[in-house]
Structure formats: C-alpha cells, structure tokens
Design goal:
about 100 residues, mainly alpha
C-alpha cells in the first residue's frame, strides 16, 4: 500500500487536470467518534491525522482544489449527494473546456 501511494504521487506530480478533493467536517466526525466511546482528545487527534492525509491529495494535480463539505461526515456522498453530483459535473465541465474529452 505504501509503495502504491508513492507511485501515485510520482505520476500525479506532473498532472495538470481538474482534481477536487471533498473533505468532511471535522466537528461532525469528532462528535461521531466521541459518541461511539472514543475519548475526546483521541478523537481530535485521529481526525486531525485523517484531515491531514486527505488534504495532501490536492497536490496530486496542479489544478487541485479542496472543497469542504460542511455538516458532513466521511460519507459525503450520503450526507450531501447534491454536493458530490455538483462537484462531478464541475470536473466534467472543466475537462471538456480543456478539450481532454
């Protein structure tokens, strides 16, 4: 798994394509963890690590963008399907504008 992540970073370092990274609301995830018995400080530390890893994905392309999904947990497609659909349509439009498809 680690090697595949390194390979992706190498290949993606030179990409110039639209990339939108949807990121969950930390407060929602921390609340869920605490309500499932995880101590508050551990929940905060875990969510901070997850957010850091996800935010790094934006650098896979020169055209990377982070979109924060307010009031959404990690299952953004479930919590806000409209945001996911809108984001996909935006990527398609940007690719078409670049004449990549």
């Amino acid at each position: 798994m680690i090697d595949s992540g390194k390979e992706i970073r190498q290949v993606c370092k030179f990409l110039n394509i639209p990339l939108k990274v949807l990121i969950s609301d930390s407060g929602v995830e921390i609340w869920k963890l605490v309500n499932n018995g995880i101590p508050n400080e551990e929940a905060k530390e875990l969510e901070k690590l997850i957010q850091t890893l996800i935010r790094k994905q934006v650098h896979y392309s020169n055209k990377g963008e982070i979109i924060e999904a307010k009031n959404c947990g990690h299952n953004i497609f479930y919590d806000n399907p409209e945001l996911v659909i809108t984001t996909i349509n935006e990527v398609i439009k940007e690719i078409m504008d670049m004449r990549l498809i």
